[in-house]
Amino acid sequence: LPIYINYYINGKSALKVSYLRQLSSNPYVIVNMYIIPNGSKKHIITLSYRQNEEKIWKPIYSKVLKSIKIE
C-alpha cells in the first residue's frame, strides 16, 4: 500500500507518495512521487530507482530534491 506523508520541498508543502513496484521477476523499484500545489497549478515529481541500488541513488535524489525551486 502507498504511504502518504506531508513533506516540504524548499519550503513548499508537498504530498509524498511512496511505494514499491515490480514487473515480473525483475528487481523491486522504489517509487517516490511528490505532488506540490502551486496556486492554480500542480507540479508532480516522480523519482524511482531499483531497491538493490538504493545506496547509490537515495543520496543523489536527496540532493535533487533540495535543488528544486518552485516559484
Task: Give a written overview of the molecule.
The protein has 71 residues and is α+β, with helices and mostly antiparallel strands. It is built from 1 helix and 4 strands; from the N terminus they run E-E-E-E-H. The chain has one helix spanning 54-67, and strands at 3-9, 12-21, 29-38, 41-50. Strands 1-2-3-4 form a 4-stranded antiparallel β-sheet, covered by helices on one side. The protein is globular and about 40 Å long. The model has no long low-confidence stretch (mean pLDDT 90).
First-to-last CA distance: 32 Å
Number of strands: 4
Rg result: 13 Å
Strand order of the largest sheet: 1-2-3-4
Contiguous runs where pLDDT drops below 50 for at least 5 residues = none
**How is the biggest beta sheet arranged?**
4 strands, antiparallel
Note the total helix count.
Answer: 1
Helix and strand element order: EEEEH
* Estimated share of beta-strand residues: over 45%
Shape: globular
Which class of secondary structure composition applies to the elements? alpha+beta
Helix content: 10-25%
**What number is the mean pLDDT?**
90
Write a brief caption for the model:
The protein has 71 residues and is an alpha+beta fold. The chain has 1 helix and 4 strands.
